[in-house]
Amino acid sequence: xxxxxxxxxxxxxxxxxxxxxxxxxxxxxxxxxxxxxxxxxxxxxxxxxxxxxxxxxxxxxxxxxxxxxxxxxxxxxxxxxxxxxxxxxxxxxxxxxxxxxxxxxxxxxxxxxxxxxxxxxxxxxxxxxxxxxxxxxxxxxxxxxxxxxxxxxxxxxxxxxxxxxxxxxxxxxxxxxxxxxxxxxxxxxxxxxxxxxxxxxxxxxxxxxxxxxxxxxxxxxxxxxxxxxxxxxxxxxxx
Length: 239
What we know:
Elements lengths: L1 H15 L2 H18 L8 H12 L4 H12 L7 E8 L5 E8 L2 H13 L4 E2 L9 E10 L3 H10 L6 E5 L2 E6 L4 H10 L7 E8 L7 H15 L4 E6 L6
Antiparallel strand pairs: 1-2, 1-3, 2-8, 4-6, 4-7, 5-6
Helix pairs in contact: 2-3, 2-4, 5-8
């Protein structure tokens, strides 16, 4: 799974370079999660997941508080959670998750971003069956064996534990996200380099230099859309 983690790191590094965009996306996601349940992460698991992810992207406290306060207020913005699936050059596959208050606009924008960059949007289920919903937790300071021992003692189910670039990476079912973090926190680990609920490809594809350039242009165009929250793909972007 190490190659998959490299792609997550690449995506995270890309987003880190566009802080205003990532902060805006987290603000919307925090608002929606808080609006759907209690605006308290201790009683709202979806909100807690978003806030844990936000920490790894260094989202400022005032942006988090503003989104939660907005959810507490009288303003009622209704957002729909949408998933689009499509194809890029040479068999590459893409999943796009969006939050939108205008479904027609978002569908049109996503379709255009695919079509203008060598891709095409598919029907629901045409791509997602080749991906696995996965919790990914990463931290530094312990070995994979030490991390595995902590998880076994806490009776937490996982798929895999690896060491890569000085970090321990844990892969598990999404419903184990909180259990993994709790087990590590009980062992004195407080800082996580990654805390994601993601879609990992079952297999990756390598593209020619020309196709990869086109693919990256397509993904950039999709990620630039205001309503898009996450983009997942099966392309091996290399080191």
